Amino acid sequence: MENRTSGETERQAAANRLWQHGLHEDNVRYQQGNLLLVAQSLLAVAYSTTLNTGDDPQPARVIAAFGIALAAIWAYVGHRHFRYSAALRRRIADVIPEYAETRATCQPRGMSTAPVLVYVLPSLAAVMWAVLLLIT
């Protein structure tokens, strides 16, 4: 059995805590995205329902305005979390060499998926709501 010093044990424990923190933050990002996407979907259903149930387009316009606001909130929350997660990933790479090596060897070309989820999806939602607001 390997004999570890107290310092090595503490470093390993710190690396484990950092890794768990990274896993938690990834989970939070996807949960936030799912929640906001479901909220956008519910607004879309409400929008179409209000248009089909009455002659007054004003309620649909209000819902579209809320959709734009929700898309802006989605982008803001995503941006803050993305920056925090990027800093956390850098720390993990500094502490866990295997993680840094895997990231270095497996970096695909092109844009990472995280910016797409953080910036492109809320932008598309905002554009959709802006178009719906204009045509109503």
For the structure shown, list the relevant keywords.
4 helices; elongated; single chain; mainly alpha
Quick synopsis:
The chain has 136 residues and is mostly helical. Helices cover 87% and strands 0% of the residues. The protein has 4 helices and no strands.
Q: How would you describe this structure to a colleague?
A:
By secondary structure, the chain is mainly α. Helix content is 87%, strand content 0%. The chain is built from 4 helices and no strands. The chain has helices spanning 6-53, 58-95, 97-105, 113-135. The longest helix is centred in the N-terminal third of the chain and has 48 residues, at 6-53. It is elongated.
Ranges with pLDDT <50 over ≥5 residues? none
Average pLDDT for all residues? 93
Radius of gyration: 22 Å
What is the β-strand count?
0
| N-end to C-end Cα span | 72 Å
Blueprint (SSEs and pairs):
Elements: H1 6-53, H2 58-95, H3 97-105, H4 113-135
Helix pairs in contact: 1-2, 2-3, 2-4
